[in-house]
Amino acid sequence: MTASDAVSTCRDDDLRSVVRGLLTTIGDKWTLVVVSTLVAGPRRFTAIQREVDGISHRMLTKTLRDLERDGLVAREVHAEVPPRVMYELTPLGRTLLDPVDGLVRWVEEHGRTVLANRSRA
Fold first, then answer.
1. Of 111, 73, 110, whose CA–CA distance to 94 is shortest?
2. What local confidence, expressed as pLDDT, does residue 121 receive?
3. How many of the other CB atoms lie within 10 Å of CB of 55?
4. Residue burial 76-104, b: 16+ Cβ < 10 Å; e: rest
5. Which of 27, 34, 49, 82 would you call most buried, defined as having the most Cβ atoms within 10 angstroms of its Cβ?
6. Which is more confident, 54 or 21?
């Protein structure tokens, strides 16, 4: 079954759209790396940027906004000068960790086969 097949088996048009959007968000280059930095607890923007090697300010902003929009990350602004903004996984965001862990285990089990297939192509 392909990802497209899985999306098309969803009978609810609204949910089918959500599946497509979430697969796009979660499957991008930075989302899971950002989520993994928030597993240990709340982080400031600059701390996340330091931990995610190579991510630009613009891309981190977009990634966090997308995660916040979907309810996976909460943003809390503290009234200080300068303002302190903290990001953390929401309870919904934490539910993403088990499926991601499953994907990581799949890669650990099958990744060498994928690499071998790519080298033959």
1. 73
2. 76
3. 19
4. eeeeeeeeeeebbbbeebeebeeeeeeee
5. 34
6. 54
Q: Would you place residue 8 in the very low, low, confident or very high pLDDT band (cuts 50, 70, 90)? A: low
Cα dihedral value 101, 107, 108, 114, nearest 10: 180
SS3 annotation, the chain: CCHHHHHHHCCCHHHHHHHHHHHHHHCCCCHHHHHHHHCCCCEEHHHHHHHCCCCCHHHHHHHHHHHHHCCCEEEEEECCCCCEEEEEECHHHHCCHHHHHHHHHHHHHHHHHHHHHHHHC
Percentage of the chain beyond pLDDT 70 is 92
Of 111, 98, 97, 106, nearest to 31 by C-alpha is 97
Inter-residue contact 35 to 52 (CB < 8 Å): no
pLDDT value at position 7? 55
Distance CA 24, CA 54 (A): 20
According to CATH, the topology of domain 3-120 is Arc Repressor Mutant, subunit A (1.10.10)
